[in-house]
Specification:
The protein is of the alpha+beta class. The protein folds into 3 domains: 102 residues, Translation, Eukaryotic Peptide Chain Release Factor Subunit 1, Chain A, CATH 3.30.960; 95 residues, eRF1 domain 2 (Nucleotidyltransferase, domain 5, 2-Layer Sandwich); 107 residues, Ribosomal protein L30/S12 (60s Ribosomal Protein L30, Chain: A). It is built from 10 helices and 16 strands. It has a 5-stranded mixed sheet with strand order 7-6-5-8-9. Strands 3-2-1-4 form a 4-stranded antiparallel sheet, with helices on one face. Helix 8 packs parallel to helix 9. The N and C termini lie far apart (48 Å).
């Protein structure tokens, strides 16, 4: 069982890619129940969910000893086994078998995005990276002249895949960075860039990004073909390759199911009377949609249940271009 560290949702692609069943196990340390008892319960649940013996052996090999922190394990009998530490993640033990269930992992990671910190000190500027969750890339601090701060920040953004810049410096520097990177990067001033302050800044920025996606969904819903909502519409848009941003509510994996095949566009609502012609598996519609989005390069935004403005049925999306253009 290999134990890599993820670098954002792009590296979850290898986990969701298989068409064969994947066992997804989420667990964390607990003082209330002995680990041996909990592991036996997890094995029973894997059996109940239809996991084969090779997959169960894979999961047990990763969880033989009680983890020191919360973990997510994805096992399939040796094809794409992976185990990820998720410190701070809460929730009950969870077991799923089918399409890889990465929603809890994505939700946990998006709450703490990477941040590029720019600190202005008289004639020089320090550029460093505060890595987000599941980030393995190490970007060394850079000291540069004030006039090259924007270029140095751009390099740090590219290497870290960050979209957030925190600035302790002049208003002029803040505006220069905003003008240089435009709406794709959030630039926020910070007076005291302590670890706690940067953590809070990252979390509030992640919440602002979520609110922005929901505002876009509401605004563009008045434009025909620019958004989709509900399981059927969203899967249809994914099958056409038009989804740019997928919005999915946690807990929606308990909803309807869908067919999925090898490639990103082989998705459709489950209908036992008319199965698709391609090689397919059945999975929770939310997991199938997330898999299709990640394979196609679309972004995924995970929403908490009950968040105002969430898409109908727990699934929705913002389209790259109007669906009417695709259909014509």
């Amino acid at each position: 069982m290999r134990t890599p560290i993820l670098v954002g949702e792009r590296d979850v692609v290898d986990v969701v890619r298989p068409v064969h069943p994947v066992a997804s196990v989420y667990t964390r340390p607990s003082r209330d129940v002995p680990w041996g008892t909990r592991l036996s319960d997890l094995v029973d649940r894997l059996h109940e969910n239809g996991a084969d013996e090779a997959t169960i052996d894979d999961a047990v090999s990763a969880l033989r000893y009680e983890p020191a922190t919360a973990v997510a394990v994805f096992a399939d009998g040796g094809n794409v086994p992976a185990m990820y530490a998720t410190p701070g993640r809460t929730g009950q033990d969870l077991v799923r078998v089918g399409a890889a269930h990465v929603l809890p992992l994505l939700e946990w990671s998006q709450d703490m995005p990477s941040c590029v910190l720019v600190v202005e000190e008289r004639a020089t500027v320090w550029v460093t990276v505060s890595p987000g969750r599941l980030v393995a890339t190490v970007v060394e601090p850079v000291r540069c002249a004030a006039e090259t701060a924007v270029a140095a920040c751009g390099v740090a953004l590219g290497r870290s895949c960050a979209r957030l810049v925190a600035v302790r410096g002049s208003d002029r520097l803040v505006e220069r960075l905003r003008d240089a990177f435009g709406p794709d990067v959030t630039v926020r001033p910070v007076r005291t860039p302590t670890a706690a302050r940067l953590t809070g800044l990252a979390r509030t920025t992640a919440a602002l990004w979520t609110a922005g996606k929901l505002a876009d969904l509401a605004e563009r819903s008045n434009l025909p073909g620019h958004t989709v909502q509900g399981v059927d519409e969203t899967l249809d848009a994914l099958a056409r390759g038009t989804v740019q941003d997928l919005l999915v509510t946690t807990g929606s994996s308990a909803g309807p199911s869908a067919w999925f095949g090898t490639n990103a566009r082989q998705v459709r609502p489950f209908d036992d009377s008319v199965p698709p012609a391609w090689v397919r598996r059945r999975g929770a519609a939310a997991d199938v949609a997330v898999r299709a989005a990640l394979l196609s390069g679309a972004s995924v935004r995970v929403l908490r249940p009950g968040l105002p403005g969430s898409p109908e049925g727990g699934l929705g999306g913002l389209c790259r271009f109007p669906l009417s253009v695709v259909r014509s």
